Structure formats: C-alpha cells, structure tokens
Amino acid sequence: MATQRTENPGPGLWLGLVGDFRVYRDGVPVHGPKVGSLKARTLLTLLAVRWAQLVPLELVVEAVWGGQAPRQPGENVATLVSRVRAVLGSEVIEGSRIGGYRLGEGVRVDLAEAAAFVGQAEAYLSGGQPGAAVAAAVRGLGLLDGAVLGGEEAEWARPARVLHAQLLRRARRAHAEAAPRAVADHP
C-alpha cells in the first residue's frame, strides 16, 4: 500500500521526526537556523525523540557535544535551553539542569500522534469497526512515511527508530486486517 506523508501541524508547536527534523509553530514552518544553532536543534530533536521522558543532563551533553563536553556542561545546556525558549516560547522545554529536561506538555510530536492513530486503528479493529480502523491506520501510516531524522544514525536517536519500525508494522497489520472487512461490510 502506497502512502504519502500527511501531517497537520495545526495550532501550537509541532515537531516532526519522520523525514528531516521539522518544527512548526501554529502551522507555519520554523526553518533550521531560526530554531537556533545546530546544538540547539540537536537538543530539541533529542527531547522530541524522548518526548514522554525527562532527559538527564548527561544524555543531553552526550547528544549535543559527543565526547567533547564543555567545561561547564550544565551552564552550556541551560544557555541552549534559554535560546530555544526565546525563539519557540517558554513552554516548549520544561525542567532544569538539576533534574533534566523534557518537552512541554503542549508540544506535539509526529511519532506520538502516529502511535495514537495506530492504537485507535487496533481498538477499532478489535471493536468490530473496520472502516474506522482503516481510516486510523491510514492516518498513522501517513505520519510514518519516511526514515526517522532523515536516516540519523546517532545512538540517542535509536528509540525513535525502533518505535517507528514497531508502529509501521502495527499500522500495516491493522490496515491489512481491516481493509478486507471494511469492503465486506460495504460491498
């Protein structure tokens, strides 16, 4: 089944991990340099990869600087966080260098939305609603069309790559099971 990436950033802040990393504010793309330096974008990307988790300072430092950590990593990360907040809003990143950082509650991530659609597809399928299952699976598949972060191989991006592969399998399976039933229900 061929799909085409479908994204609906809508209001608020929306981050895309499938394909090249993308940032939208109220449906309008915020292009790379406007988000900040490469380090600031890496920080935001890492937080999107781990959207539901508090990311410890050590992991942020490793992702942003690799083996070349600055002398004062906490202060440097705090500066990056301040710069991202200045551009995208104070609500985009929560936390501090003591406890770690995470995306703010209102920030949406494409993989999280895809996971919700896939879960809906499976629930509709098990609930005997194959037409709704097909629709939800197609929406999930549309968000999953492409490689995570344009093929980024960094270890910190691995959780997103693994989740993407799992969601893709589940969405395809739900679609494959639901489509014939939906056709049979509405010949």
Automatic annotation (TrEMBL):
Taxonomic superkingdom: Bacteria
GO terms of molecular function: DNA binding
InterPro entries: AfsR-DnrI-RedD_regulator, OmpR/PhoB-type_DNA-bd, Sig_transdc_resp-reg_C-effctor, WH-like_DNA-bd_sf
Residue ranges constituting the OmpR/PhoB-type domain according to the UniProt record: 4-105
Residues annotated to bind DNA: 4-105
Keywords tagged on the record: DNA-binding
GO BP: any one term: phosphorelay signal transduction system
PROSITE patterns reported for this sequence: OMPR_PHOB
The protein's name in its UniProt record: OmpR/PhoB-type domain-containing protein
